User: Fold this.
Amino acid sequence: MIELKSEREIKIIRENGRIVALTLNYLKDKIKPGIKTIELDFWAEEFIKRNKAVPAFKGYRGFPKNICVSINDEVVHGIPGQKVLEDGEIVSVDVGVFKDGFYADGAWTFPVGEISDEAKKLLGVAKKGLEAGIAQARSGNRLGDISFAVQSLVEKNGFSVVRDLTGHGIGRQMHEDPPIPNFGISGMGPLLKEGMVLAIEPMVNAGTYKIKTLDDNWTVVTEDGSLSAHFEHTIAISQNRGEILTLQSEPLE
Assistant:
């Protein structure tokens, strides 16, 4: 069942989303060669708690850390540890926040130092895929309009969207109905209504869309070892557009 949120509830999620965005921007300035991924986890926990919120991922379904940090061919759910970031890598950081009974969720993929032209293109296309999906997230459209917009933009640019993982509804629970695939048919799926809150999150691979999970039972990687980028916003459905809730006063660059 898709739960509609009240204005009061959306206001809470918006504040939580602001903390997500602030955390990502805070970590952006710290991502550089020589940094260990566990340091990013420590800084994120400290920052979120300083904002009187709780890191939503720690202990969620047994996840051991506060944020997900996924590097190069790692798609999502990378576990922070002793890995040292190197020049030329790309790193996806996924942040969840819980406060006042509600969740917000967001992710961004950052360059580490100077990256290849292919990696730059991948990040740009994945980000534009997210924007294309959000542009369809308005009352009266169908869920498939979001999925189709993401897939069309990504595949037109020669990349692929992961099919075994989806975005999701979000609110009192981290994962609520409906699941939001990044591929689909326009005009199909549930009707979008004001009050829906969705986490839209394209996961875009440079090669095949196929993925596999490593032996840690968390880290998802591309099957062919190609690069992967992940961008995510929590948004609220409104009459004319999707309102991005995971923003500061200005969008992240």
